[in-house]
Inverse folding.
């Protein structure tokens, strides 16, 4: 793990802030972009000016880039997932629906048979 | 960890080969990825120029904020000016991250601009004497910018692509803002139509120049390097042709002309054949010798110098509280 940037002091000691915003109370926070600011208060004001002139917004975060730890480029290729974990995904359980249907149909067939049997008994009385 | 060691063990030539293979596979490059110096320098040159052009590009229209004909028009053109400055902020951030390993900052870009070492788009050196100029800028200059920026959405440099996604969405509003002004004038009185025709005449050459000289021109060009690195995908002339195809018919539909009596469409080659603008004049303009270059550079520089104490004060305050 390493710091996201080795050189985040920029422009006469202004800091780089990464901006995240949340569209509605139910939305996840989404990274917007970055900006330069002398402190968090100014960064929050700048974030609204720079990125939220039109889009709806429910909440806003600014984070100093220095405080973000990122995966180095050399390790990113290992994030790619091998396609051998179907037991973790719904597509690994694609047979369930047809099996449930088979059971329902068998049950319904039994019910029908039972009704027919009791009907013939009644008729025989 | 092993991968990291392996990559750092590669020779420069092997790193370059791996980089070009990534480009060829259509992969995107991030700020902290290894990249050849040439790629970094091309990006800095392109993106710094683009960012500064957004900031200088706000100035021609800013001149019309106090004189806009209605309150709604005033609010709209103010919003557009603010958007352009916002786009400049995004692009300068992208350029700064690329310049950081070279020890350069936003201040260096501003000083380069004031010293005329950093160029901005030719169109923003031009005069805007009438309200119709504000309309033509929104309609055709932003229209031209949309074509180049839409092409660049596919750029191999991921942070630039992300900035452009935001920018392109807002440029659509800018073009519509311009179309709305232009249609109002085109549907207006004879005097209004005359004003619009004169603005079109004034902007015709600058608009042809906007895309840069054609490949076979005399001015040296970085186009082929940028196409190799997939920083861009189309040549200046391809972009200019898309522009002509899209906008010339609309100019004619409104009953206006362009100041080129030779212009015609070659159906066989599927191109517009037009009179070349004065490329010597173009060189002079982007060197900072256009009609409004000195005025706008002075405005930008004096506002930068006069606001220095604000940045100093805010920084001192930030240190105390923050």
């Amino acid at each position: 793990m390493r710091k996201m940037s080795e050189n985040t002091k920029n422009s006469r000691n202004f800091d780089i802030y990464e901006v995240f915003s949340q569209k509605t109370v139910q939305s996840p926070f989404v990274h917007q972009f970055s900006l330069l600011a002398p402190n968090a208060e100014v960064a929050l004001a700048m974030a609204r000016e720079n990125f939220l002139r039109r889009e709806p917004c429910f909440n806003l975060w600014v984070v100093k880039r220095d405080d973000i730890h990122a995966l180095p480029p050399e390790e990113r290729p290992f994030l790619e997932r091998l396609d051998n974990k179907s037991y973790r995904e719904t597509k690994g359980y694609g047979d369930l629906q047809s099996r449930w249907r088979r059971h329902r149909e068998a049950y319904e067939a039994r019910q029908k048979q039972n009704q027919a049997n009791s009907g013939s008994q009644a008729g025989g009385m | 960890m092993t991968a990291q060691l392996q990559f750092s063990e590669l020779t420069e030539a092997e790193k370059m080969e791996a980089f070009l293979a990534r480009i060829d596979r259509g992969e995107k490059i991030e700020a902290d990825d290894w990249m050849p110096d040439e790629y970094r320098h091309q990006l800095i040159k392109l993106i710094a120029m683009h960012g500064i052009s957004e900031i200088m590009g706000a100035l021609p229209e800013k001149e019309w904020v106090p004189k806009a004909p209605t309150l709604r028009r005033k609010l709209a053109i103010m919003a557009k000016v603010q958007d352009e400055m916002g786009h400049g902020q995004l692009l300068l951030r992208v350029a700064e991250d690329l310049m950081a390993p070279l020890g350069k900052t936003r201040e260096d870009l501003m000083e380069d601009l004031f010293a005329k070492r950093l160029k901005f788009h030719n169109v923003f050196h031009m005069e805007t004497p009438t309200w119709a100029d504000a309309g033509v800028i929104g309609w055709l200059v932003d229209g031209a910018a949309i074509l180049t920026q839409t092409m660049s959405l596919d750029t191999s440099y991921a942070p630039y692509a992300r900035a452009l996604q935001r920018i392109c969405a807002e440029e659509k509003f800018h073009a519509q803002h311009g179309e709305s002004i232009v249609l109002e004038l085109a549907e207006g009185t004879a005097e209004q139509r005359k004003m619009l025709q004169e603005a079109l005449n004034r902007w015709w050459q600058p608009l042809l120049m906007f895309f840069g000289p054609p490949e076979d021109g005399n001015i040296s060009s970085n186009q082929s390097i940028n196409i190799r690195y997939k920083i861009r995908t189309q040549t200046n002339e391809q972009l200019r042709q898309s522009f002509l195809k899209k906008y010339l018919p609309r100019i004619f539909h409104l009953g206006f002309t362009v100041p080129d009596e030779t212009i015609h469409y070659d159906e066989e080659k599927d191109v517009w054949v037009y009179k070349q603008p004065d490329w010597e004049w173009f060189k002079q303009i982007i060197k900072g010798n256009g009609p409004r270059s000195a005025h706008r550079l002075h405005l930008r520089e004096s506002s930068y110098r006069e606001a220095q104490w604000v940045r100093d004060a805010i920084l001192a305050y930030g240190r105390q509280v923050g």
Chain A is about 35% helix and 25% strand. The interface with chain B takes residues 4-7, 10-14, 16, 33-42, 49-51, 53-54, 70, 72-75, 77-78 of chain A (CB under 8 Å).
